[in-house]
Design brief:
Strand order of the largest sheet: 3-2-1-4-5
Distance between the termini: 39 Å
Structural class: alpha/beta
Number of domains: 1
Largest sheet: 5 strands, mixed
CATH topology: Nucleotidyltransferase, domain 5
Order of helices and strands: EEEHEHHEH
Shape: globular
CATH superfamily: Ribonuclease H-like superfamily/Ribonuclease H
Oligomer: single chain
Number of helices: 4
Strand content: 25-35%
């Protein structure tokens, strides 16, 4: 079983976004910070979640078929959209995320408050600050 935490950070004035991914398996953490293409926070939340599942599927290969992922997000939009398999203004992003989750045996999505998602939150903010400094 894998626990996957994602978060995104966006600077509205510049349109820069970054994401943080925290993966926990067998008491070991893997932390990833990455720049995102999205220019709004909602889009960035979907993008980082989709990237996280895509990367995990690539790493696990055929093992995905027997893998359960506990997915934690502090984005209510992402959590509710995945549960409903629908989002009025973000359907293509919902479809991409669901497609990235499809290889796994089971994905349980859980909304968590930001304070319970500090690992991914910190990674996203570090990546965003690095992008702003580089710019």
């Amino acid at each position: 079983m894998y626990s996957l935490y994602t978060d995104a950070a966006t600077q509205p004035q510049s349109g820069l976004s970054a994401g943080g991914i925290l993966l926990i398996h067998d008491h070991q953490q893997t932390q990833t910070s990455l720049p995102l293409q999205a220019t709004t926070n909602h889009l960035a939340e979907f993008e980082v979640a989709t990237l996280a599942f895509t990367r995990l599927a690539h790493t696990l290969g055929a093992q995905c078929a027997t893998t359960t992922v506990l997915f934690y997000t502090d984005s209510l939009l992402v959590s509710q959209s995945v549960a409903k398999r629908y989002a009025k203004h973000y359907q293509s992003e919902v479809d991409a995320l669901l497609s990235a989750q499809r290889p796994f045996q089971l994905v349980l999505t859980q909304w968590v408050p930001e304070k319970q998602n500090q690992g991914a939150h910190t990674l996203a903010n570090q990546a965003l600050h690095a992008r702003e400094d580089f710019k």
